[in-house]
Amino acid sequence: MSISAASHLSPAYPERAVRGTASRLRAWQQAALDEYMTREPRDFLAVATPGAGKTTFALRIATELLDRHVVNTITIVAPTEHLKTQWAEAAHRVGIRIDPNYSGASGGTSRDYQGIAVTYAGVAAHPMLHRRRVEGRRTLVILDEIHHAGDSKSWGEAAYEAFEPAARRLALTGTPFRSDTNPIPFVSYAPDREGVRRSVADYTYGYGSALSDGVVRPVVFLSYAGRMRWRTKAGDEIAMQLNEPMTQDAVKQAWRTALDPAGDWMPQVLRAADRRLREVRRAIPDAGGLVIATDQGAARAYADILKDITGQRPTVVVSDDPTASARITEFSGNDDRWMVAVRMVSEGVDVPRLAVGVYATGISTPLFFAQAVGRFVRARRHGETASVFLPSIPNLLQFANELEKERDHSLDKPTQATTTEDVWGEEEALLAEANRTQKEQGYDEDLFTFQALNSEAEFDRVLYDGAEFGLPADPGSREEAEYLGLPGLLEPEHIKMLLAKRQQMHLTSARKKALLRSQAEAIVGAEERPVMTRKQLLELRKELQGLVGAWHHKTGKPHGTIHGELRRTCGGPAVAQATATQLQKRIDMVRRWAAEGGYS
Fold it and tell me: Where do the Helicase ATP-binding domain residues begin and end (predicted)?
């Protein structure tokens, strides 16, 4: 073990740092180290964005404390088995021998080791065992992604019981803190101006600062909407646009319809994402893509779709596969195009070549979203950009627009009632599920029992640096291609300028199409667009409304669903803006349904 070795560890370990971002330690790592060594606190909380180099920072402190005999052993607590091994490998590089296979059953480890690496779950299983270890030795405890200690009351209590006697505790996190009020052990809280107790970090290095320093990649979000149609538990058929205002339950069901592998939305979005990946690989040949799925069935179905698109079978990673960690490591080191995972690659796992992501999960907590996006921000050289595809869901769009916003953990709930706008009031059970690595389950069938009927994707917009660009466009269109074809290497200051240019081209194209449409309508023959008086147009609308009402009474389907199906089948705008020809087509269609027994 040597301070010199720790000084020369890549500040971006396990990868090499972006050229020009650091010589030995990055500026934030040196500043945080100086703060720590000046104060020498028993507890220290460092909040740094994913990809900033928390591992290197922590191991540098460990070598300093070991060299000065402030501590004589190390305990590293990580969220997952994979991260235990990753920490042990990093420590080995600086001469600290860590046993990643220590277990409570064995009760001890070889004298050749200077410490152990365990999981939060392992600590919860044997808290007193770990307490006896730290009581008998001057121990530095490194708590990686400390918010996991608040995953459940028992986990937090176990961590406190086990490590309360420790000589030093270094807590690390790279994502916004939890949205529940479970206290996190060894974290200090102080009231804000409203009297809400919030976590206090000893050093913070956020995404915005890291982006300015060139330490992380800028993230471009490509949002997709589209028409969704599903059948509820009550038997009602509902058709809605993914990005139109709707109730919270309808949002969840429309979202689930979009993610259904049997629909057209996911294949269309995956095809767009692969097109974006091909563009990125022009400049970054080993760039990879990651699809984050909700459950194992969906993951394997998405993998089949990607195989059809690319001709190559993606790597599939699920948590109950004993080879999961090996698969991640293998994918990290090769140049395969795609990996599909179920939450497994949501936090702490380093695959820096990931440059394109598809957020294809129904999890909508801000913590999980930040963890997922964190998989794509690890820069290896200047000019790399990350692209994340996501459904046009209000919560997700808000998270994307607020990527640079820093938040602290709150111990107190706001006094006002939670509303649909309160996206930080997500269900605690869902948050806990998102943070743990366990056997994946699907959606709660009791809550969201329905049948997805069909779905179609539509390019909606691009979100970058709090701004939005683009207009709706069909998949495969030239307008969509303008955004998918952004260069793979692009400096942050040029991205917004190029997006604005693409948007102007898009607007110009839309105006030309509108003009051509109006000119075409102007020359339609009298037999196609008969001259109608206002009274005659009102009569057609009245006739259509009467037929829709009759069909509603016959089938029980809501009026809005019937009108939506008519628009989908016959084309054209809402009834109030429809022409006489369009209204007549819908009248004829309802009559055909009545004669043929309905639509499918």
Answer: 35-194
